[in-house]
Prior knowledge:
Elements: E1 6-13, E2 16-21, E3 26-30, H1 46-49, H2 59-68, E4 74-78
Antiparallel strand pairs: 1-2, 2-3, 3-4
Amino acid sequence: MSYPDIIEARVIGTLEFQVRFSDGLEGRVEMRPGHLFGVFERLKDPDYFKRISVNVCHTAEAARVLAAFPFQTHIETSGDNAQ
Length: 83
């Protein structure tokens, strides 16, 4: 299965960020503090969280990381491919 690339990510609030994919899909991700432990503990620090950026990475890699991350997110989507 092929996934679109992540082309933009920006912080929009406390533990919230907006993400945009190459196919036009956009969404808002809200992370829960109780799920940020281990290597993700640093994301609780607002100054560290604000450093979010998009690096050269294929979405399939990001999807594997998110699938392994034990948290639930609230995602709102917009754009042509929103469901």
